[in-house]
Amino acid sequence: MTTSVPGGWPPPPYAAPVPPGATQPMASSAQQQIRHTVGIFIVCGLMGLILGMIGTLLHRWLIGPVPVGLIIGLGTCTGMVILAGLITGSRLGAAAAACGWMVILGVLFIQSLVDTDFMGINDIVIVTNRANPYFLSTADWWLYAGPAVALAATMVPYPRLCHWAQTPQ
Q1: CB atoms < 10 A from the CB of 91, how many?
Q2: Which of 70, 76, 81, 158 is 20–30 Å from 145 (CA)?
Q3: Interatomic CA distance for residues 142 and 73, integer angstroms
Q4: C-alpha span between 122 and 101 (Å, rounded)
Q5: What is the chain's Cα-based Rg?
Q6: 3-state SS, residue 116
Q7: Contact at 8 Å (CB) between 132 and 59?
Q8: What is the pLDDT of residue 96?
């Protein structure tokens, strides 16, 4: 016989005490699924941080007039966002990877705006061209095309390709 509390809700279930020497019960499958999903999103965000840093360091590499580093950086980071979406089967995985990329891009861009000089060492990673407003440097393309490509790759609906990385839609 179940009793209800004044609000009409049944009382919360209480677990029976575990006798000494017995093993603790395992976590429920829902708790394991939540931990698994959060772990996958954290890995996607870390990959966004790592590849965003590599792309930021690489974007100024030129071979003649061709910005090879910018093309490789945008292609690699975009591929990483798409792969994160395909692995998780949702836009949230792609958004986690894109957020990691945008965090590192924002931190390094703010550093270039502040123009800090600590102990005589000036290490600005993203150098924009403020002298000519009609010419977009590779840094400008990295700053403007990067978020646009990340947003576009996040808006694509992704099919679930990996059965081990299922996330709620």
Answers
A1: 18
A2: 158
A3: 8
A4: 23
A5: 24
A6: coil
A7: no
A8: 93
